């Protein structure tokens, strides 16, 4: 391999390395698969997810090191580095980022204020990017790693010293995972991860030089041992005897030594396997995917979302197929377009007018970019300032829907919070019809106010079964993540379920502490009989619809004059409510003469005070009047309720 320095802008087109394309192909398939199964329940998929993350992003950093070149110390060398290596990546980052932000606005029905502020997040980059742009952290760390590694191989002559610096950089990157950046949990451009990537990229630089010189039989032996090691690691992780997590974007690395040793071993196994495939011939589809990993990296998350909004299924295997197929089709169409005479004529015309265009466009572009950058960054700073008004912690908040409801009711509560980076939706837990838990997502351990949404697939099992399911969820979170405390939010029958949980298990020392409880429109002492279609006509649950307007009243202590059976159930365990829990009771009054929110009377929901105020650390009530106080509208895009809930749970 030629190792001379590059001190000219002239480059020669080299023959593609087939096995490197194969490695990129398998790497991008792993990326798409990891994102496709991220929110799917199941032990097997959980193990698969983490096993993929042990190697797939380090693989791309190592491949990035294959084609690095030393630069001279003069102007031409630096021009090559910035003009030939960094500039194309920077253009791709902002161009594709802007396209995806606009797509996200329309397909996710986001506000323009949120969309405009997201351009500020695109400038800041790193972990602030999510949804369609969640993988864009890789592009910024990749650019930083290319810059630093190129300087390392160009200015440090001794190889051992290069690796010593890279290893030190790796150690620093690991150490920075728990350190904030001027008060922000997110480093700009995920710069701390670039410190790790320098080691992998430098390793790739030298692996590519030495790889052809290693005896094929020795490679096979290493691949065999490495594969057995991988299988052993998977077994240890599946049996809870290995705690190896390598989530680079969120800077979540449980063991520095494991992160240092394991990814290179697994990546070398992939390289050797790909060279073995090269011996068998050129597989055109695999090569095409390898050549177009960038477009798949950019657009597979959008492909997940856009297509599953319009089709009948959203299974993980469908997401893998569409996450690969849609960007590949886009890449194929772009290639076809670039082969047209129209494109070539436009390119020729652009080249002829290049100097004239640059004279005019360059100052305008620089000016607009500067204005846009200042505006976007100020928008991001304003958004960041908003989040600084809130306490950011690892304490999860569990949301529970009401009778005959679903996740949509809960997602409305957190829409503003997620857009302002106050909370992060990290997990969805389904309680199946056979009373099993299906867990989608995972708690990352980040100080991002994680939110857990609960969905009972049988959403008419009633408040007692709801409470029992919540108890199983809390126990699962304790066993799986060792959480110490949590917040609870419930609407309607979900509110009753949380109160029931508090009476029965809230003071259990073996369970996490119930920190804050926000309950909305809770029917603690009856529901108005409105004859709704989803209202049970017989059975034990039918007895809950036993209230009428103006029938009941509360004494000065909040005790209801008429006590229904469901209230008596809570009253019997009144003295078991946890003493350290803060309670916010939100209720509505339509002011239409019924003294109710249309379904639950004010007297029924305010009867909670008598049940918990003597034991709770604090008890507050918040009334919403008029149309916004209607039973369902309390949780559907209700800014008054959302602001109150957000301030109460996470405000300083």
TrEMBL record:
Organism name: Weissella thailandensis
Domain Acyltransferase positions: 18-334
PANTHER family per the UniProt record, alphabetical: MEMBRANE-BOUND ACYLTRANSFERASE YKRP-RELATED
Entry annotated with the keyword Disulfide bond: no
Name this polypeptide is given: Alpha/beta hydrolase
Transmembrane segments: 17-37, 52-68, 89-107, 135-156, 163-185, 191-208, 220-238, 316-337
InterPro entries: AB_hydrolase_fold (IPR029058), Acyl_transf_3_dom (IPR002656), DUF915_hydro-like (IPR010315), Nod_factor_acetyltransferase (IPR052734)
Signal peptide annotation: none
Keyword annotations from UniProtKB, A to Z: Hydrolase, Membrane, Transmembrane, Transmembrane helix
GO molecular function (one): hydrolase activity
């Amino acid at each position: 391999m030629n190792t001379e320095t590059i001190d000219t802008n002239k480059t020669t087109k080299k023959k593609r390395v087939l096995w490197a394309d194969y490695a990129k192909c398998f790497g991008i398939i792993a990326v798409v698969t990891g994102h496709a199964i991220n929110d799917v329940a199941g032990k097997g998929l959980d193990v698969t997810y983490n096993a993929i993350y042990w190697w797939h992003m380090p693989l791309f950093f190592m491949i990035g090191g294959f084609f690095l070149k030393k630069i001279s110390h003069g102007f031409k060398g630096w021009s090559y580095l910035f003009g030939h290596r960094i500039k194309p990546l920077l253009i791709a980052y902002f161009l594709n980022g802007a396209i995806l932000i606009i797509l996200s606005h329309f397909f996710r029905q986001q506000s323009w204020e949120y969309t405009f502020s997201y351009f500020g997040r695109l400038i800041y980059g790193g972990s602030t990017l999510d949804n369609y742009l969640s993988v864009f952290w890789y592009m910024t760390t990749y650019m930083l790693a290319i810059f630093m590694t190129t300087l390392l191989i160009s200015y440090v002559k001794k190889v051992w010293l290069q690796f010593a610096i890279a290893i030190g950089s790796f150690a620093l990157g690991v150490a920075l995972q728990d350190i904030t950046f001027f008060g922000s949990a997110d480093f700009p451009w995920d710069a701390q991860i670039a410190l790790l990537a320098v080691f992998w990229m430098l390793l790739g630089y030298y692996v590519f030089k030495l790889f052809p010189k290693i005896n094929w039989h020795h490679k096979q032996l290493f691949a065999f041992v490495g594969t057995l090691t991988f299988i052993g690691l998977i077994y240890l992780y599946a049996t809870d005897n290995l705690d190896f997590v390598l989530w680079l974007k969120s800077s979540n690395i449980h063991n520095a030594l494991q992160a240092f040793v394991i990814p290179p071993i697994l990546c070398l196994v992939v390289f050797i396997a790909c060279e073995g495939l090269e011996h068998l011939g050129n597989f055109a589809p695999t090569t095409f995917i390898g050549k177009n990993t960038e477009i798949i990296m950019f657009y597979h998350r959008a492909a997940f979302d856009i297509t599953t909004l319009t089709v009948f299924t959203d299974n993980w295997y469908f997401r893998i197929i569409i996450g690969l197929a849609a960007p590949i089709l886009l890449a194929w169409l772009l290639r076809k377009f670039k082969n047209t005479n129209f494109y070539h004529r436009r390119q020729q015309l652009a080249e002829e007018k290049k100097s004239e265009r640059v004279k005019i466009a360059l100052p305008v572009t620089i000016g607009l970019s500067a204005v846009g950058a200042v505006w976007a960054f100020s928008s991001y700073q304003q958004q960041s300032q908003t989040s600084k008004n809130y306490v950011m912690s690892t304490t999860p908040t569990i949301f529970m829907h009401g009778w005959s409801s679903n996740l949509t009711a809960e997602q409305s509560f957190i829409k503003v919070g997620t857009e302002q980076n106050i909370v992060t939706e990290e997990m969805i837990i389904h309680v199946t019809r056979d009373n099993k838990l299906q867990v989608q997502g995972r708690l990352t351990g980040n100080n991002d106010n994680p939110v857990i949404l609960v969905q009972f697939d049988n959403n008419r099992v009633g408040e007692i079964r709801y409470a029992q399911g919540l108890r199983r969820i809390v126990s699962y979170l304790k066993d799986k993540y060792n959480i110490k405390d949590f917040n609870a939010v419930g609407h309607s029958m979900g509110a009753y379920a949380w109160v029931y949980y508090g009476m029965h298990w809230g003071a259990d020392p073996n369970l996490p502490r119930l920190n804050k409880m926000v309950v909305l429109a809770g029917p603690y002492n009856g529901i108005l009989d409105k004859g709704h279609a989803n209202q049970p006509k017989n059975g034990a649950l039918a007895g809950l619809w036993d209230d009428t307007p103006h029938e009941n009243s509360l004494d000065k202590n909040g005790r209801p004059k008429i006590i229904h059976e469901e209230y008596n159930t809570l009253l019997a365990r009144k003295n078991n409510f946890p003493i350290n829990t803060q309670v916010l009771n939100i209720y509505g009054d339509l002011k239409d003469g019924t003294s109710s929110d249309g379904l639950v009377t004010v007297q029924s929901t305010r009867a909670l005070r008598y049940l918990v105020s003597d034991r709770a650390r604090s008890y507050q009530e918040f009334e919403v009047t008029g149309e916004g106080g209607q039973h369902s509208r309390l949780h559907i895009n209700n800014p008054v309720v959302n602001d109150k809930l957000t301030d109460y749970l996470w405000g300083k």
